[in-house]
Specification:
A hairpin with a 4-residue loop joins strand 2 and strand 3. The chain contains 16 helices and 13 strands. It is of the alpha+beta class. The strands form four sheets. Strands 4, 5, 6, 7, 8 and 9 form a six-stranded antiparallel sheet that branches.
Length: about 575
């Protein structure tokens, strides 16, 4: 018992410790997991992470049963992990994504300010440039891809570089299995930014060309501009001179020259071959003239003391295994119910003429078996067991909904039409709401950092002038379905009763899914339309009064004309 507890490791991937395949790969032994988790150059601290990535990827592709060996040959997997990932991703990103610089919003709401995005203000110019860059780089598509990786594996990585040919920063999404940060010694804060980052992977051999297996490592490292550390450089985004810059090294090694025990951070450059970029520059500590590493790591969850995040499937791993086993048992029970086991006695069966042995009995529609006087036919009814298995599967699905914090209406196990009211459905989204808020909080500092790097690369490329850049953000839209009719009625009654302001009411409508882009602007439009309607009503009322006055004057003149002859006669 003592030996067993000595092997207990509590980290972001500990929930997979019950899997022998994971434990073998995490300890560096070759097992059932593909990939290079057990390669000699993999740092020991990263083996568990890479092994977990492989296991989670197997769940996503309905191949987790392969980790069980022969015991998983007939295991059924119906895509529940992929459904969880897709639904979590959809609610994380919301219905829409948008780049916003808060300063431009403040300018639009200030009536005395004339420098908005359309007027060429500094913040507005950068916001327009960022949105054009997002369209050119297919940012939202890349975010979809990267964030799905984060939800599934727990981490995702973005890489930025300046393209002279395109004249803009180029964005790439990097598999987190290639990401090996060198964290500062003694770092206990997950947000501590590493000063050296490796992107490393193996390239398998190609028998067709005779090329052997190689290992490639791309390194970004912050260091002094000069060897003595006295040289300085003034970057366009800062008014203070800096003594630091970022160096890029891109090298590859033949695997036979990678000595055992040499980690990714300690590989000898003796046998390294350095690559060149598109401009012909040798990538051996190439000075990028940046004071930052253009890599952004995005964890799926708030990491706490750890640098890496946790997969949305991690807490449900064993439950997913049980669900797969229950689905398999249910399928087997359905097979015996649809094709029941039949026992015959006293039947005259067909005989093979050559061997004289009875032919196999087949159950077909219209089949008739002649039975003797004491003959019997007995069938094994397994429908009761099938019903029990199906009920057990539903119990596991309900538990899965609780563990993953995805309500049944999101997973498709509950018909929304059967929910008693919109308020009841809204209450069911409480755990999901808390989960999404936490996941968005984990990304709250990452996407502004990414956009800050984009603006600085534009400055380094001479597209933007020097100066401090405003904070830019990526906002995610609404994700919760709501009872729009109920919300509208609530807002109307609240505003009329004076317990809700008009702006708060408009924001509530926007959150419930009404197509309102900006609450303040929408309120301005509402008030403007009210003022215009009041003016039209007043004009119509004045016109009606004027017309009524004219009709009364005509009636008085007619009465005077009718009375005049009588007066004269009198």
């Amino acid at each position: 018992m003592l030996t067993r507890w000595r092997n207990l490791i509590i980290d972001a991937w500990g929930a997979l410790s019950y899997k022998p395949a994971f434990e073998q790969a995490a300890s560096g032994r070759s097992g059932r997991l593909p990939g290079h988790a057990g390669a000699s150059w993999i740092p020991e601290a990263d083996r568990r992470r890479l092994a977990a990535y492989t296991v989670l990827a197997a769940y996503n592709t309905n191949q987790a049963a392969a980790l069980l060996g022969d015991d998983g040959v007939d295991r059924r997997e119906y895509g529940d992990p992929s459904l969880i990932v897709n639904q979590t991703l959809a609610h994380l990103l919301g219905e829409s994504q948008k780049i916003v610089i808060p300063e431009t919003v403040d300018q639009d709401q200030d009536e005395d300010t004339d420098t908005g995005p359309e007027d060429g203000g500094a913040a507005g110019t950068r916001e327009t440039l960022l949105r054009q860059w997002a369209e050119s780089e297919h940012l939202w598509l890349r975010i979809q891809h990267a964030e799905r990786t984060a939800v599934l594996l727990g981490d995702t990585v973005y890489l930025l570089s300046w393209s002279r040919a395109e004249g803009r920063p180029v964005l790439k999404t990097i598999d987190p299995g290639f990401y090996f940060p060198v964290l500062p010694d003694g770092a206990i804060d997950a947000d501590t930014y590493p000063e050296r980052v490796h992107l490393a992977w193996e390239v398998p051999a190609d028998p067709a060309t005779g090329r052997g297996a190689t290992m490639r490592r791309v390194t970004y490292e912050l260091g002094a501009i000069s060897q003595d550390g006295t040289a300085t450089r003034r970057y366009p985004w800062s008014t203070q001179p800096s003594t630091r810059t970022c160096y890029l090294t891109d090298a590859e090694w033949d695997l036979k020259h990678v000595n055992r025990g040499e980690g990714a951070d300690a590989l000898s450059l003796k046998h390294a071959r350095f690559r060149t970029n598109a401009d012909g520059d040798l990538l051996n500590r190439l000075d990028l003239q940046l004071d930052f590493i253009p890599i952004v790591h995005v964890p799926n969850t708030i990491s706490g003391p750890e640098h890496f995040g946790q997969s949305s499937l991690m807490a449900a791993a064993q439950l997913l295994d049980d669900l797969g086993a229950a689905d398999t048992d249910s399928q087997r029970a359905a097979a015996t119910t649809g094709s029941p086991i039949i026992g015959l006695s006293g039947a005259r069966l067909a005989v093979d003429r050559k061997s004289g042995q009875p032919l196999p009995v087949r159950v077909e529609p219209g089949m008739v078996w002649p039975l003797g006087e004491s003959g019997q036919l007995t069938t094994l009814d397994t429908s009761a067991q099938l019903a029990e298995m199906r009920a057990y599967v539903e119990v596991l699905r309900d538990r899965l909904s609780v563990i993953t914090r995805l309500p049944g209406s999101v997973l498709g196990t509950v018909d929304p039409a059967q929910v008693p009211s919109g308020y009841a459905m809204q209450l069911s989204f409480g755990p999901l709401n808390a989960m999404v808020r936490s996941m968005r909080l984990a990304r709250a500092a990452k996407y502004p950092l990414l956009l800050k790097m984009v603006l600085r690369l534009y400055q380094a490329g001479g597209v933007l002038p020097a100066g401090e850049n405003p904070r830019a953000e990526v906002t995610f839209g609404s994700y919760l379905p709501s009872d729009q009719a109920g919300t509208l009625d609530l807002v109307v009654r609240g505003v009329q009763a004076g317990v809700l302001s008009q702006e708060t009411g408009v924001r509530m409508l926007a959150d419930s899914g009404f197509p309102i882009q900006d609450a303040a602007r929408e309120l301005e439009r509402i008030n403007a339309e009210k003022t215009s309607a009041a003016a039209r009503e007043a004009a119509m009322l004045n016109a009606a009064e004027a017309e009524g006055t004219g009709e009364r004057n005509d009636d008085e003149e007619n009465e005077s004309a009718e009375q005049t002859p009588d007066a004269l006669t009198a």
